[in-house]
Structures are given as C-alpha cells and as structure tokens.
Amino acid sequence: MSGMMAVFWKELADYFSSKRFIILSLLVYVAGIITILLAAQNIRTMAAGGTSTVFILLFLSAPQEFLRFFLERLSLFVSPFTFLFMLLIPFIGISFGIDSINGERTSGNLSRILAQPIYRDAVINGKFLAGLIAMSILIASIVILVAGMGLRMIGVPPTADEILRLFAFMLVSIIYGAFWMSLAVLFSVLFRSTTTSVLISVVLWVFFFVFSFFNIGQYIAGLIIPVDQTSGIDTLSQFETTYRLISRISPFYLYGEAVQILLMPFITTANIATMLANSIGTLNPLSLGRSLLVVWPQLTTLIALTGLCFAISYIKFMREEIRST
Amino acid sequence: MEEKAIIETKELVKAYGKFIAVDKLNLRIDEGEIFGFLGPNGAGKTTTILMLLGLTEPTSGKARICGFDPTREPLKVKRITGYLPEKVGFYEDLTAKENLDYTAALNSIPRKVASRKIDELLGMVGLSEMTKQKVGTFSHGMKQRLGIADVMIKDPKVAFFDEPTAGIDPEGIEQVLTLITNMAKHKVTIVLSSHQLQQVQKICTRVGILAKGHLVAEGSVDKLGREAISGGKFRIEIQLSKQTGKLVKSIKSIKGVTNVESSGDLLLISCDKDLRAQIARTVVDSGSLLIQMKIEEYGLNDIYMKYFREQ
C-alpha cells in the first residue's frame, strides 16, 4: 500500500509539472470559454417557454444549426460544450495513459523501480490512480469555470437539482475519460514502443469518430433492416433500435447518450429523435433519480469497458517477465 | 566453508521456450565478496541476476539470497538487495535529488532520514554540485554514479551491478570501480556482471565465467589463469648472465619443478607452486648472476580467450 502511495504521489506531481498537462489544460480552458460564450448568445431562445431549468442550459444552448446538425447525424442532442467534452476527454485520457508502462521501460526506469521492495501492481495501480485524479481535477475545474462564468453572465443561480446534475455529468465524464485512459494503459502494456501505442490509440479514436459522426451506424442498420418512405411504423422502430444498438459500439455515442440524459431533464428515453431542439422549454422535466435510471445502461457499459481494459493491462503487466533487453 | 553464503543457487535453470538462457547453475557467493560475473553477451548473466532478484521466475532449481527465496519472498529479497540495471534510466525531468527521493519513498524510508542520506550519498558519488540539476542533462558516467547512490540508499546487503562500466569514459570507469570497491569495504556483497575483463580483474575477489548458460569456470583470477593456461602450474621466467647445463640440472632437481626449458638467455621453469625464492638461491649458489626473474601473471583476457576458444 505504501508503495502504491509513493508511486501515486510521484506520478501526480509529474502530471502537474508536465508540459502535456499544462498544454491540455490551456486548450480545454480556452475551448470551454468559447463554448460558454456561444451558449450565452443562444440561451434566450432555448429558455423560451418559461422552463425552470435555466442554469443548466448554459451547457446546452447553441445555434439552431449546430444542434440540428448533430440531431440529424447522431440522433443525439449535442451542444458545443458536450461536443467539446466528447472529443477532448478521449485525448486527455489517451495522453495521460499512453506511455505509462512502455515509457518507463524505454527510459530504463522500470527494472530499477521493480527492484525496489514494492509489489508490482503498486506501479500500475498508482499510475492509474494518479492519472484518474489528475483528469478529474482537470474536468471538474473546467465545469466549475464554465458554471462560474455563466453565473455572472446570466445571473440565474442553479437549483439543487441542477447542481446534482452537473456533478453527475462530471462523474460520467470522468468515467468516460477513465475508459480512454485504461485503453491507453492497455496499449502501453501491450506495445513496447510508445509510438506504436500512440498510433493505435489515435487510429481507434479516428475510427470511432468516423463511425459516430458519419452515419455509419445508420448505414449498417439500413443494410440489416431496409427502410424507405413506405415502411410501416414497426419496421421504422426496428430500424431505430438496431441503429442505436450498432451506434453504441462507439464510446462517443455512449457518452453522448449518457450526457444528454443527465443534463437534460426533459429527456425521458435515450431516443430524442422525435424531440425538437427548439422546444425544450415546453417539455416536462424528469427528476434526477429518474434520469439516472434511464442512463444506467450507458454508465455501466462505460464502467465495465474501463474495468475490462484495466484488468487485461493488470494481468499482462503482472505476468510479464522482466528481460535483459 | 565457514563464511555464510549470501547467495546460493542450486541447479538453477531458466528457459525461454526452447532456448535455455541459464542451465543448471550452481553458485555460492559469500559475504563481503566482489564476485565478477563474466561472459560474452547473451551468456545468461543478466538473466541470472534477474532471477536472483525475483524479477524473473526460474524455470527450475532454487536460488537463495540471505536465505530468502526470491520467487516466494520477493519483497524480503528486494529490501536487502540493490540493483543497477545495464541500461539504467532515471526520470529525466526530475533532479538527481528528486529521483533519489522517489527511490527512498519506494523503500519507505522516512523523509527526514532520506533527505540527509541523499545529500551524503550524492556527495560520496561526487554529484553534490549537481543536486538541483535535471538528470536529463547528466552524462552517462554521471548517471551511472547516480545509479550507485540509488543502490546505496537502502543500505543493501547485496548489490548487483549489471555492466556498470559499459559505455563510459576511462575516468568514469575508474570512479565507478572505486565506488564499488568502497561499497565492498562496508560489508556489502557485490555481484558485478561484465564483459570488460581488465576492469573486473582489478577489483573482483572472485570471478565466474558464464558461457551459454553454463558456469565454465569459477575462482580467483590467478587460479583460473593457471588452470586454464598452464594446467594449474606456475610459470617462472628467469634471465641469467650465463647458462650452464649443470645449473639447469640443479634447478630441475628442486622439489616441485616439473620442467625447465631454455630459450635464448631465458629459462622457462614450470613448477607446482611459487618457487621463486628457491630458484634464486640455486642460481646464486651456482655462481651465475640473476638478471631478472618474473612469474607469469594471468590476465583474464587469456583465460577468457582460452575458454571461449574451446567452446
């Protein structure tokens, strides 16, 4: 245990002093501020209809074209802010985990560290934990920054329910980041060269990006269940279910679904294709507990994927022979 | 042997698939020794060290360090052993002191104790000026010295150095070897692997030659040399002012002398033990003058070449 804590504190200190962390934070903060400015311009239209949840709209409002674009492509409600998180968190996660093990090996530190009186898993656990905490701090700070700026701009304080929703949103974002980080840690255990592991992660990121944002899911679903203008309602709903099932292969989509449900009390199912973005204010909100129930499958899937990647890395790392070369 | 064995292996085997890296190794190293592990690249030196440290599991056989089994009690073994890997690395973005701080933390050494000790060690290895410099700016020799400080921080009973002199300049080598010798004076048992013979020869009390996973020879450098080259005999070379048949005969009659050869004004005498004193007296008694006398010394190089030519 003390070994793990030693690794943890050292790694955490490394993160905060690393250029990587500083550059990523700056990038995320700048992007976050841009999204909040964008949201502030459109919040009036979104809030029309006298909704009780104004504050959270800070994270959701956007120009109509923006929202429509994603609704059409993804059947998801994606605001600039959630879009930013959807794309950037994987980058943060990957960049935090990607050289955790093979970087140590290449630099010649690994055999020196493992010759110290600590259990081998202290290294991987401590590193993962430190990455998780550093990432949590980064994510939480940007949410708080945006919330604070928004509060000054619109002057409407958040309700208790909204605060809880924001916390739930942070938690889901951290889990989403943990998934990408555990994937990166897995690659860093599997591949000896950092370049290879970076390349594979980026390829995977691009693959899921294309998969999610270029209608690949719809296309595949269309092959399985062909639909046209004459299709009946049964076929259409079957198509819809298949399409969603396929789309959920991508963590982007899973996260997108989870976030829209958590941030938007108006969404009662994962499917909002029928809901119109510009009439949010007129919809009947769900309680947070209900939203959590709806989001549960997405959440557990992300957690399970994270656990799986980490478990494989852990076993592989524990069994690995330290060799002379 | 009365001394306590610090390191002991019995029939230690390590196989990677069909490739046998270490084959039935029997080894015994006593307290306070500087044991040189010699052999060409790929002979199994590093693999043996890794097995002794519990970083690699042996395929069969047993290893003991101070009575502990490295496979079953890795933490106990790691607590008393220090290891300097061949391609040692430090965190380049951290300073020398920060790197050692981390090692101290991993060894659960309290901060205050560690801080004092680190300053002391950095002074000892001649890096006290560089305490606040990032390790990234260090030369290879400096890193190696930092590595020695890194090993010393936990006060090991046994220290393993894997090719500590590889790739550093002669002055650096000298410094590293002096530091290692000083460690041995503090009752630390040292195992040193190397393929650079001249250096090892200077400081090792005993060497073991490893080839293709086998320990082909083991013992002190002189003993190995005699065994390898002259079948265990001493060879003494003398130069005389004048040679006579009678003198040669009387040298031959000294007890222990097995052969006398003459080449020019030199006489080559083979004998079972060091008979220089007796030979000198015989020569002087005969009325001849002794110009020079030397006993053949064996370099590890000769020994090494001899063993590997046989392979």
Instruction: State the low-pLDDT regions of chain A, or none.
Output: 269-282
Q: Quick check: average pLDDT of chain A?
A: 85
State the major sheet of chain A: none
- Enumerate how many helices of chain A there are, as a single number: 13
Helix content of chain A: over 70%
Distance between the termini of chain A: 30 Å
Distance between the termini of chain B: 31 Å
Instruction: Tell me the number of strands of chain A.
Output: 0
User: How large a portion of the residues of chain A is in β-strands, by DSSP E?
Assistant: under 5%
Summarize the biggest pleated sheet of chain B: 6 strands, mixed
Task: Detail the poorly predicted runs of chain B.
Answer: none
Q: Which two chains share the most extensive interface?
A: A-B, 25 and 33 residues
Please give the radius of gyration of chain A in angstroms: 21 Å
Mean pLDDT of chain B: 86
Number of helices of chain B: 11
Determine the structural class of chain A based on helices, strands and strand pairing. Answer: mainly alpha
**SSE arrangement of chain A, N to C:** HHHHHHHHHHHHH
Cα-atom radius of gyration of chain B: 24 Å
- Name the helicity range of chain B: 25-40%
